[in-house]
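User: Predict the complex with Double cubane cluster.
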Amino acid sequence: MSKNYTQLWENLGINLEKHDGLLTVLSDAYKNIYLSQKNRPEGMKYFDFVISEVHGLRIEELYEAKKNKRKVIGTFCVYVPEELIIAVDGVFVGLCAGAEIGFEEAEKYVPRNTCALIKAFMGFKLAGLCPYVEMTDLIVGETTCDGKKKAYEIFNDITRKMYIMEIPNMKNESDRILWLNEVEKFKTKLEDLTGKKITLDNLKKAVDIVNKKRKALQRLSQLRAIDPVPISGLDALLVNQISFYDDPIRFTQKVNELCDELEERVKRGKGVFPKGTTRILIAGSPFAIPNWKLHSIIENSGAVVVGEESCVGSRNYRELTDENFSTIEEGIEKIASRYLTIDCACFTPNQERLDNIVELKKTLKADGVIHYSLQFCTPYLMEAFKIEKLIDFPYMRIETDYSMEDFGQIKTRVEAFIETLK
Ligand code: BJ8
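Assistant: Here is the predicted structure with Double cubane cluster placed in the model:
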């Protein structure tokens, strides 16, 4: 970290002793997993810096934003329309956590057999380790899976900051109407919270900011289709993870700079791994920071990850919002319909997810697909079986959590799978 943030953390009620321990573990993991990689693009230095300051400089920036009367809005799901938060000059932050921390505390509130993502966001808060939660003025939950729905009730008892958006489970006309109403209600909630009105002008600007961010992530994804691949899956994953924390305009600029460099690499035929390295597409549950386990296993087993069919991946940037609107109402409708294209496994039926996996495998020229589900995540675990019956390419299912206990076992299975693809 560039400076000492102890006072800032103390003001936020962070448990300093435990937090020091967390930062040490994180920084060691980062060195081992990230900084040990060969041939990394220079442009990754910015993202290394962001990670090193994820509980430091970024928190200070949020603090400054709040001093300037901006509101900080925390979210857990790519269904929450970022455009509306930006339109009221709010700051959007993702609150999902990817480490097995505070689970003991979390298990006093939710059953043991709850997915790691839920236990982690509760655990980080309960153990006094999440400066982001402390910074928020509002935390937006959604009615996606049952685990999240019920956990948000409990999280509201703890934080008193929750606002819930109802996400339909289907995509019929009545569901579209319900969802549009929810987006309109969210707009009103944000206007009440911030005291700022959404205008046609600020809505158009916000859509432009978020579309540019998604376009930059699409550009990065397209570069991963090239062989030799100019960036590792680990690094691309990190960029996608940081998209939920960083200032969106600065982030977009840095991703585009990285892509400029990657294009140069492509021209020179330079890759991070040799041409012809086995290419893997991962599909499934999201990867919150610092969940780098599966990517690390795959890329240390002789293959490269070329894409993530995930909310920390293609589900977050695949669709843009149509910018062609001339009233606020029309803009809200375009935003609502863009979000309803997201093919989360919580929907039924969900044929588009299967179609998108098939398409992504083709465009990224992946040799095989590894389906990744968090343990106890019923929607993705169920779809993993369904997909297996319907596809005709190499595929394997992995069910895991945030612990390292199954590292060796997963590595053995992944190595065997990669062997079959060679
Ligand atoms: S749109 S994937 S971000 S809900 S892993 S908590 S589903 S039991 S995270 Fe998600 Fe939105 Fe869907 Fe994406 Fe439940 Fe599964 Fe846990 Fe999950």
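Strands lie at 72-75, 91-94, 138-142, 162-165, 278-284, 303-309, 368-374, 395-400.
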